[in-house]
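Thread amino acids onto this structure.
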């Protein structure tokens, strides 16, 4: 099927070479890398093209596949097997002495200086080279305010049961798709898709549920069992719209600053209570949470390490049916490792 899709042509001198265990392992590495890079690689006109280059035939088995403008390059010869994904690559050099093959990691980014940035900073060339910082992994801490823009994070007595153990209320985000629209080499619009897992760990031995009147109420487990931990969790699909500035710091490195808005669609929610004896109570309740949410976000970092903060401004609970009709506004602060390069 692959040959039908990309019209691959193999130039081989022999078809009887035995497939080694290392080659099988390397194929697995290719599949894993393609999955990660396929989600994280930015969409651009140059990357949408697919081309294949045929290697020059000689007395050894040798072939080369090129997809896009060096988006994916795969070379295989008797001496080495090479895989390049964008600016990163890996090489497996075959050993002639029967020893284990040597693995080397490659960096194909050209050596650049501040002058390089100035030369590339044009709408035709520089904008096309812009790469934002969204796709990657994020880890943060969750909390919420019951009044607008953090003016009061101390919850009133009537909803004291919503108090969180902030050190154990975490968010984990996987931003798996990114689109970078460059205006200049160091400035552009960034968007994409990501999955956002939010865990809110309660400080007290209680949980929440939708009461008979349709509002969020406190739930205290019956019986003599001691609550070990209690939380509620929400999963969202996030879509950002960010303006990002990249400030060159020398030797091709950059300080990245971004800000904008972020929207989310709720994919699911549930509550969970764990007791000391190991028993668990779990409920896949809707919890009156709104289907959509929106907020503001800001990010700053150096190269692929970022620190971010997000505050959601839209009503978290629909129809004012939150705890005691009060409207809570969630926010998170954390750090990210991006896959843009």
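Threaded sequence (341 positions):
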């Amino acid at each position: 099927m692959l040959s039908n899709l990309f019209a691959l042509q193999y130039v081989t001198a022999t078809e009887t070479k035995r497939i080694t265990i290392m080659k099988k392992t390397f194929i697995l590495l290719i599949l894993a890398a393609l999955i990660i890079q396929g989600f994280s690689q930015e969409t651009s006109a140059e990357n949408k093209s697919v081309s294949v280059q045929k290697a020059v035939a000689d007395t050894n088995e040798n072939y080369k596949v090129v997809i896009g403008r060096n988006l994916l390059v795969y070379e295989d010869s008797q001496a080495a097997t090479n895989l390049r994904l964008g600016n990163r690559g890996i090489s497996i050099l075959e050993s002639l002495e029967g020893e284990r093959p040597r693995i080397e990691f490659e960096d194909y980014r050209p050596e650049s200086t501040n002058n390089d940035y100035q030369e590339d900073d044009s709408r035709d060339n520089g904008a096309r080279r812009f790469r934002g910082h969204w796709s990657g992994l994020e880890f943060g801490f969750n909390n919420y305010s019951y009044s607008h823009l953090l003016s009061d994070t101390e919850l009133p007595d009537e909803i004291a049961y919503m108090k969180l153990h902030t050190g154990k209320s975490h968010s984990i985000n996987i931003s798996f798709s990114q689109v970078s629209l460059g205006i200049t080499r160091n400035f552009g619009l960034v968007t994409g898709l990501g999955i956002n897992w939010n865990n809110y760990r309660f400080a007290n031995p209680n949980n929440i549920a939708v009461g008979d009147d349709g509002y969020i109420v406190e739930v205290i487990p019956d019986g003599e069992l001691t609550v070990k931990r209690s939380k509620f969790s929400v999963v969202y699909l996030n879509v950002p719209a960010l303006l990002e500035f990249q400030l060159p710091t020398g030797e091709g490195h950059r300080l990245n600053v971004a800000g904008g808005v972020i929207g989310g669609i709720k994919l699911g929610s549930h509550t969970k209570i764990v007791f000391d004896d190991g028993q668990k109570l779990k409920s896949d309740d809707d919890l009156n949470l709104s289907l959509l949410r929106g907020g503001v976000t800001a990010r700053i970092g150096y190269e692929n390490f970022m620190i971010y903060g997000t505050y959601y401004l839209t009503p978290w609970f629909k129809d004012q049916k939150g705890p005691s009709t009060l409207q809570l506004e969630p926010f998170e602060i954390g750090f990210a490792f991006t896959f843009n390069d």
